[in-house]
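Entry for the shared binder. Reason: the reviewer on the internal report wants the predicted structure included alongside the sequence.
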Amino acid sequence: GRVMIHPFDDPAVIAGQGTIGVEILKECVNKPLDIIFVCCGGGGMLAGIAAYVKRVRPTTKVIGVEAADAAGMTASIKAGKRVTLDSVGLFADGAAVKTIGRETFRVCEQLVDDMVVVDTDQICNAIKLTYDDARVILEPAGALAVAGMKKYVHEHSLTDQTLVAITSGANMDFDRLRFVSERADESERTLAISIPEEAGAFRKLYGMIWPRNVTEFSYRFETNTGAKILMSFQPAKGVCGDFEDVLEALEGGGFECLDVSHNELAKVHVRHFGGGRSDVKDERLFMFEFPESPGALQRFLYSLDMSWNVSLFHYRNHGDDFGRVLVGIQSGTRCDERLQKFLDNLGYEYTEETHNPAYLSFLRSSS
């Protein structure tokens, strides 16, 4: 005796979701309204809003937004028939549908003006933007329309238009916030940089990035001739082509650079493995803490005595009020007294980690 109520492919459900369009148009009577952006999974909300808006206010565009790894409506409209996806990603799980509805496809194919596809980083950035603006934490599927609106505005250079993005869910798992925070900053660019293994190379490299905010700096001694550094920084806001200018300056200064800003392997895995093991001699490991503020990392770098070779360096800005830097220093037993004096006069809190089992297990060669 039970009746299956389809979550999206039912005329009554579509009509119910279409009442969102009724509310939007009521709020915009005698006011401009150029585009409404709607998240799309199975297509119920998109079809319902499009059906009402196009009947009452046909000059207003209705644009659907899908996650790149679950873009069933986009693929179906492009093919001219319903397409079943082989698989769907689950980051935006509230809109992860392999096969869109039959009725939703019929309506959307006729009435929807355009479809926008956004990736995971763009969704994370939309969650951040919404939080910064309204102190609301959306779930990934709920932020699709905001992500699509931002992408569409950028690609079409829109100005002086009235846009609406429907935020359709806040069922966010707390465990996901770490990932969202890590991937939300679209301004961050990441480089793999080859530097000569010589005194002053750190300062020279950092000096060419300054005054831009460095958010990540990871280095491990490899050979006596050269080393690889993973560095993330935020190009200057409002300066067109600033990242390209930095890249050109670095390469002109003798640093070989590889842009890995959009390299999924680098962002998800390699950044956590940067450096690895080394059998560098006479290495002592220290963890330093300093108050986070503009230029704090630069001041710390310039405070290091360059007569010692830095064999390991790791810094990552996590938004804390204190920055933490892990530094390996080749001091040798004869330099212990001078090194201790240097540490005492440095003015930063520190802990020696030379005998920490995590360091010995994963950052020291077993040979």
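Summary line for the report: The chain has a mean pLDDT of 88.
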